[in-house]
Amino acid sequence: MEQETFLRVLTKMLGTDIIRASVETTHLRGGMSDNVKLVSGKAETVECKSVPYKIIFKMQKKRRPPADPDFWVNEYNFYASDFHKLFDEKVRMPKCYHSEISNDMYTLWLEYIDGVSGTDLTIGNLEYIAEVYGRFQGKLHKQPELTESIGCVRYTGFMQKYYNFKRNQKEWYDYLRSESFDVPVLFKQMLIEIDDNKEAVFEKIKRLPIVLHHGDFHAGNMFLHDNEVILIDWGDGAGWGYLGEDIANLICDNPNIESWDEYYRKLIPAYLKGLSAYMDVSKIVNFYFKEMIIISHGYDIVRNHMLAQDRDTKEKQITALQKIYEMRDVKK
User: Fold this and answer.
1) Helix, strand, or coil here: 264?
2) Residues 55 and 9 sit within 8 Å (Cβ to Cβ)
3) In the chain, where are the structural domains located?
4) From CA 43, how far away is CA 41, in angstroms rounded?
5) How many angstroms from the chain centroid is the CA of residue 322?
6) How far, in Å, CA of 323 to CA of 306, rounded?
7) Which residues contact 237 (CB under 8 A, 6 or more apart)?
8) What is each CA distance from 245 to 208, 233, 288, in whole angstroms?
9) Which of 30, 144, 151, 159 is the most buried (most CB within 10 A)?
């Protein structure tokens, strides 16, 4: 990191002139990012006061996402724009203190979030998050003037593009239809039926309202702090999408497969309750949550079953399919 830039970042973050600082770095998990670090230490002000600090440094090199090769700078565009103005007192993204971009890389200096995240989030926490997130999406849908000046928010069609990418992996496609994929016939047919009728399924989903969506909405990308929901990693799939995409992902993008049915029963009603503050969801005949879950995770389950080295791992994939198969229509 450049020392001059670093001191400017600390000055902006701490609201006072910083002349020097000690530095300790810890590598963090960063999804598709090449380098995410927690940078911490003590900063010295011009008044010779010592101030502790924590900040996140994120570096992303140019890459070619499988779903859309032009979206690798999506996150940078969000942080470098007025995108943060769309958020409210309950839902937001981390503050960005500095951003830079070149032809093949961008860097971000972001607020460090001290909150509950990942597997530490309880089902009650997630219900709360689903409700306030639904309310946030509903508000933006009801007030489109809030987003008109934010040019970086585009329709991504990420769910369909990423599904097509996975479907076009011939090895996965063939395994789904092979005898080696030895799962109960009803479960296999559930996946094949969506696969064989994907165009008709997507046409139905496209009748749903368009909302701002995160695109990688799972517990590891959310923090809960003092009833405030802070969402990180606004990456490739973030932008305009269809109502319910994010919640469908939240339900099954967690390693505790046994909890999927509970997530389905509790998170969707909480989400719809939040939406109802601004939208009349009673007019929506079908939300297609189950179809979205199959689209988002069906081929992942097929791949995991194919690559499993032992029977226990294969059985987990069968359990996942059973949980999805048993999901019933959500009552409004």
Assistant:
1) helix
2) yes
3) 3-111, 117-325
4) 7
5) 24
6) 19
7) 67, 71, 156, 158, 159, 162, 213, 214, 215, 216
8) 10, 16, 9
9) 159
Tell me the C-alpha distance between 212 and 98, whole Å: 24
Break the chain down into helix, strand, coil percent, rounded to 5.
Answer: 45, 20, 35
For the beta carbon of residue 209, count every other beta carbon within 10 angstroms. Answer: 15
Global confidence as pTM: 0.93
Measure the CA–CA gap between 7 and 105, rounded to whole angstroms.
21
Answer yes or no: CATH 3.30.200 is held by domain 3-111: yes
What pLDDT score does 54 carry? Answer: 98
Query: What local confidence, expressed as pLDDT, does residue 49 receive?
Result: 96
Q: What are phi and psi of 134, to 5 degrees?
A: -60, -40
Spans in the chain with pLDDT lower than 50? 332
pLDDT of residue 325: 96
Beta-strand pair 91-92/228-231: parallel
- The end-to-end CA distance of the chain, in Å, is 52
- Cα-Cα-Cα-Cα dihedral sign, residues 290, 217, 212, 122: positive
Beta sheet of 228-231, edge-to-edge order: 91-92, 228-231, 222-225, 116-117
Which structure tokens are listed for 326?
């048993």
pLDDT of residue 195: 97
Q: What is the pLDDT of residue 168?
A: 95
Alpha-carbon gap, residue 304 to 26, rounded angstroms: 31
What is the pLDDT at residue 32? 56
Chain position carrying tokens 């600090």: 53
Amino acid letter at 104?
D
